[in-house]
Amino acid sequence: MAIIESYMAMVPIPVAILVSVLVNIVISIIGVLPSAFLTAINVTVFGFWGGFSVSLIGEIAGSLVAFLLYRKGFRKFVDHRSKHTPRMKKLLDASPREAFLLVIGLRLMPFVPSGLVTLYAAVSKMRFGSFAVASSMGKVPALLIEVSTTYAVVKWLGIGQFIVFGLAIAVLFMVWIKMKQGHSV
């Protein structure tokens, strides 16, 4: 980490931000690489809120670019593979409202691969604008937890992490309630 910090100190901040966002886009397109290491670098280089902001911009931009690329080339492949993943099959068959809530909910779950959510949303009937809003809404609390965790490890602050975690659980619960009030998913 010290090597990256010393290198980043030589790079102008706008260039460092651009590089971080571009790396995040590549990570999103590949779809299987975790972006947590990049978030850790961003928090170390730009601080808590700066790292959060740069990571959020990169993750949102990455998911949107990946959505557009996946939409172009993966629909048949996913239709065949979705038999093995019932939750993702629900996203494929969901109404626009259900898909919106599913994307928010899946983004909030830390162990659901972001690339998989993007892929299934891209090959579903979900519109780009709905995906952009739902994905961004789900990424904010999830990324706050990730940044808080990273920052807590670096600075050893625990209370902020618990507050953000509690907020993410509350949002997840609200999405779940909304889904139960609407159509069963």
UniProtKB/TrEMBL annotation:
The record's section on InterPro entries has: TMEM64, VTT_dom
What kind of membrane protein is this, topologically? Multi-pass membrane protein
Q: What is its main location?
A: membrane
Q: Which residues cross the membrane?
A: 7-33, 45-70, 99-123, 156-177
Provide the VTT domain boundaries: 33-149
| Coiled-coil regions listed | none
Cellular location of this protein? Cell membrane
Q: Which UniProt keywords apply?
A: Cell membrane, Membrane, Transmembrane, Transmembrane helix
Taxonomic superkingdom: Bacteria
Family from the record: Belongs to the TVP38/TMEM64 family.
Q: What is this protein called?
A: TVP38/TMEM64 family membrane protein
User: Which species is this record about?
Assistant: Paenisporosarcina macmurdoensis
At the highest ranks, the source species' classification is: Bacteria, Bacillati, Bacillota, Bacilli, Bacillales
